[in-house]
Amino acid sequence: MLVQFTTWDIVRNLLDAAKWTLALSLIAFVLGGLVGLAILFARISKHRALQAATKAYIEVFQGTPLLMQLFIVFFGLSLAGIDVSPWLAAAAGLTLFTSAYLAEIWRGCVDAVPKGQWEASATLALSYTQQMRHVILPQALRIAIAPTVGFSVQVVKGTAVTSIIGFTELTKTGSMLANATFEPFVVFGLVAAGYFALCYPLSLYAKRLERKFHVAR
To answer: Where is the ABC transmembrane type-1 domain positioned along the sequence (predicted)?
Structure first.
């Protein structure tokens, strides 16, 4: 029996799928931020072993496609006898991907703090931890806000790749609707509009923050 879909039916299903796209983006960004923060501290520590390990971690996740990372998480754990749902695999894969990029973004922001700030805080007999807490990180945070918000756009768009492992988000729902309605142009046009509606405000906000903090310097 052929099911007829109206334009509203398509929009309604895509709006419901957009909720999962947004939820996955938020989870990946928050958890990725927490993991990325831990990687950052290890990356800028004075322990060479930690520096080398976190550098390798960042290079692996930045140097390999997100799709391959999701495949390894989803199919690799399944081969190891661990039952992983598409939702869990998508969240874990995106969290690892996000953490690597955020850690490197934030490391760059720490490096952007003028060397004179390190020297000035050292003359006050502050320990390394005190330097980071009271002098360096507050300044790095100000620099990091705009690129961090900007990267959130990449996280939202990255959720589209999770459709390959069966996670039903905006792109996956669009593919199923296109197959059911035989109207791929309409369906994927609406999918593109959905991603634009999610990403464009973040892009504008990132540009606004960048101008604001650049002027404030």
So the answer is: 18-206
Structure tokens at 187: 């369906």
**Cβ neighbours of residue 170 under 8 Å, at least 6 residues apart?**
14, 17, 18, 20, 21, 159, 160, 191, 194, 195
Q: Which domains does the chain have, with CATH numbers?
A: 7-216 (1.10.3720.10)
Cβ neighbours of 129 (radius 10 Å)? 8
How much of the chain is helix, strand and coil, in % rounded to 5?
85, 0, 15
Q: For the chain, give the percent of residues with pLDDT over 90.
A: 63
Q: Name the one residue in this structure whose structure tokens are 């939820």.
A: 23
* C-beta contacts of 190-196 below 8 A and 24+ residues apart: 190/10, 190/11, 190/14, 191/14, 194/14, 194/15, 194/18, 194/21, 194/170, 195/156, 195/157, 195/160, 195/170
Closest by CA position to 62, among listed 98, 93, 25: 98
Residue 121: CB atoms within 10 A of its CB come to 18
Those residues of the chain that have pLDDT short of 50 are: 1-2, 215-216
